[in-house]
Amino acid sequence: MVSLLLAVIYLAFISLGLPDSLLGAGWPVMHGFFGVPLAYGGVVSMVISLGTVTSSLLSERLTKRFGTKYVTVVSVALTALALLGFSVASRFWMLCLWAVPYGLGAGSIDAALNNYVALHYTSRHMSWLHCFWGVGTIISPYIMSLALTHATWQVGYRTVALIQLGITAVLVLTLPLWKVHEAVDRGSQGGKILGLKGALGIRGVIQLLLGFCGYCALESTCMLWTASYLIATRGVAPERAAAFASLFFIGITAGRFLAGFVSNRLGDRRMIRLGTGILFLGVALLLIPGLPEAVVLAGCVVIGLGCAPIYPSIIHATPDNFGPENSQAIIGVQMASAYVGSTFAPPLFGFLSGRLGLALFPFFVACFGLLMIAMVERAFKMANRKK
After folding, report:
1. Low-confidence residues of the chain, pLDDT below 70?
2. What is the per-residue pLDDT for 385?
3. How many other CB atoms sit within 10 Å of the CB of residue 149?
4. Which residues contact 78 (CB under 8 A, 6 or more apart)?
5. pLDDT value of residue 57
6. Which domains does the chain possess?
7. 192 CB contacts (<8 Å, ≥6 apart)?
8. How far is 333 from 336, CA to CA, in rounded Å?
9. CA distances (Å), 170 to each of 107, 120, 193, in order?
């Protein structure tokens, strides 16, 4: 039963990844349909992020009131409804309206399931959980690509919505499986709500949030700007740059799968350090002048591999560092900080690169990498000193 429940949780995390890369895949065509500038995609993205931050901050209250299993079911159903809304929208304001449940569903499931796996499973399973998120982000652009080739972008959204509804049905049918950890969960439900103020008052949490925000800023910047950097500063052909930029996603997904085999033995802190070292190796390959193009392109993949273990390891270490009774509140705030970093860092880089040039890219990534490792190390030390 434990293994079957884990498979269901993995499936739920695929559902979390499916919508994440869908807007980026479809927006080049969608903005023409709605008659708005290409830049308006950022407006939709920010509305989604606002909903995600809100539901992340509310996740402790929701999970303690209703339980992880019901929060998961409702969240997936909410994203399915939002995707169906996108598929029938005929005005830009309708997209913004449907973006609200889109974000609310994503934030709730992200915080609830991350905490559940951190409490009940090993770091290996946390790595594989986020690997399945990567599977979702890889699948949906292919669905949109097929829809744009043979039909319309609306069909792409409708197809993913139907997949989400199917996952919702599976989650409803498998609700009895969650009883396996019910005795432990009952102790964490109800009781005092720690809240945002309470979470921030715990020693080391602010440093942890700064580090986590720095990591997510780094990751989202790489996702958006890698191809542009390769084209503008290294003279890589656009189609070749696009292909290798996509390998950043594959590097993260494959890296999380591989990390699962060693994370139990090395532990969360060593995995974060290992990932950071690999990440900076990839950045160095972008910075060193005169390297062959193939080596520079490989640097993009290496950065993805380095990023792979950092996010799941930081999350998995939270209950051990700050106590299982506080983990849901802290992980909820972590998710909020993650979306703040991933929302504002890419446009910040766009603003700076417009004045300083795209050659700034590896330095920008390195700065957030340094912020991440410095703050996470500080948070670990403060949490251990508290013990």
Report:
1. 1-2, 181-191, 239, 242-246, 385-387
2. 60
3. 7
4. 101, 104, 105, 108
5. 84
6. 2-193 (1.20.1250.20), 198-386 (1.20.1250.20)
7. none
8. 5
9. 20, 21, 31
